[in-house]
Design a protein that fits this description.
With 92 residues, the protein is mainly β. The protein is built from no helices and six strands. The strands form two sheets. The chain has a three-stranded parallel sheet with strand order 1-3-5, with no helix packed on it. A three-stranded parallel sheet has the order 2-4-6, with no helix packed on it.
């Protein structure tokens, strides 16, 4: 993924009461998140934040984000299982 408008997102709106969804990615090779791309779960309403689960040999993060947020309720979890390399460059 590359660029500001690129990403995998599970987000609820401010007026919602439901929970944000879970993002689960199983990739045996590499996951690349560059130049403001994002993997994110976010509950902007009253529900709980979702979870992010990533399983991969390599994760390359360069000016991209992996985030779990909520404005109220309980925040989500981020679980990374990386068998080889977790590379973070510049401002991640």
């Amino acid at each position: 993924m590359r660029g500001t408008n690129s990403g995998i997102l599970a987000i609820t709106q401010q007026t919602s009461s439901g929970n944000a969804g879970t993002i689960s990615i199983n990739n045996p090779n590499s996951i690349n998140i560059y130049e403001n791309a994002a993997i994110a779960v976010n509950s902007q309403g009253t529900g709980e934040g979702g979870n992010i689960i990533i399983n991969s040999d390599n994760i390359n993060l360069n000016q991209g984000t992996i985030s779990a947020q909520t404005t109220s309720g309980e925040g989500g979890n981020i679980t990374l299982t990386v068998s080889d390399t977790l590379a973070m460059g510049k401002i991640a």
